[in-house]
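Project channel, design review

CF: Before we commit to the Arsenicicoccus bolidensis constructs, I'd like one complete example in the thread so the newer folks can see what an input/output pair looks like. Taking SRPBCC domain-containing protein.
RD: sounds good, go ahead.
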Amino acid sequence: MKTEFTLPDDTTISYTRTFAAPAERVWQACTDPQVVRTWMLGPSEDTTFEVCDMDIREGGSFRWVWLDPDERLEIYGDVLEVDAPRRLVTTEQMGGTDWPPTHNVVELTEQDGRTVLTGTIRYPSKEARDGAYASGMADGMDVSFARLDEAA
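CF: and here is what came back for SRPBCC domain-containing protein:
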């Protein structure tokens, strides 16, 4: 199954993916750092997932750092809302940039042992949204979600 992406308005990217697993397992795969390390492998095959710190509770935060021969990628944010295993709301920011944070919502809906993950990323501007989408983030997320489907 492929991840479906849409651009519903000038500042938003939405995505949907169905996983062949119950919501509780998909939730754990998305919020347990030991499991996240197995599927969110970063931008290239030479990438090392150096840091995967996640405190998934309201008021918590997360920080991910990937290293490869050409670059260092850091993403971090705050956890705003948690309703396990149904909804997670965070901010997200890319390290080393002055870009304002995004507002991210992930929702899980289970039916007949399968889970639909729906995500919404709201950017501060159309330019920021378009830049993120043009970076290849959709392809990277789709590859990672294929690994998540195996992990969940």
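RD: helpful, thanks. The first helix runs from residue 23 to 31.
CF: The helical segments are 23-31, 33-39, 126-134, 137-151.
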